[in-house]
Amino acid sequence: MNVLLNIVLPVFALIGAGWFARRRRWLGETAAAELNRFVVYVAMPALLFRIMATASWHDLRQPGFIAAFTIGCGVVFVIALIRGRLRGQSLSHSNLDGLNASYANVGFIGFPLCLAAFGPASLTSVTITAIVTVCVLFGASVALMEIDQSQEGGWRILRKVLFSVAKNPMVLAPVLGVLYAALMPTIPVGADHFLKYLADAASPCALVSLGAFIGERREAAPWSRVTSLVALKLAAQPAATWLLAHEVFQISMQATGVAVVIAALPTGTGPYMLANMYGKDAQVVASSILISTLLSIVTISLLIALFHTG
Description:
By secondary structure, the chain is mostly helical. It contains 14 helices and no strands.
């Protein structure tokens, strides 16, 4: 009960505050989008840069953790993709299903949740999962979308995908942070305070933005399709990640806990952005985000109670 009250509920209460404010129209129609832009382009890059600029190479060398989380994402993505194709869906819509089922909301929920549950030492690992999610998973999904829609050659598609991923601030910031840590001295006090102020704003703004996004009124999506994707996201992905982390790569219990909790996070907004980017129906995506977020209050509480040692 203490885990629920002290760790999980404060995080989801901020989502609820954003939802309530949007429903009451205290936040306007563009509030979720504008807050999201602030988080993605300003606050979260500051957080990621600061974490990586102050991390040691020892903190970053986590091959078992990286492999367990990445393979877990990939397995669930492929299952949902194949399932969509077998049901006669286009590659684009099957690709969105795969992203729906495997794209954890690391940026908006993962950082504040793991900070509260596992402490500041976990943030480097969380940053690694954010990079895997944004670079590897989202990049692969963009590539499949381009393949389905483009008549261009393979090299031009690859170049377009690499350029799209490379200019993402949530990819650039940690890379620059690693370079700074390797080549430069300690961050000056004034600059560090500036980065910390922005970093501290990332999590609350992200959570309120997510709540405002969920609070938008939308048409209902096909229930059977949504529930299967939510089941893959909240059950299959953390189960696969646990199996890989504990049985295959045999990483520490703390690292296993972080990997499994991140894998069990609800669907992030990446699939919704991709659907809008390519003009695809986003009803299933939006419903998956809403339902997985609500149900994850229970599933995340159980997992943190299992792995939390503080």
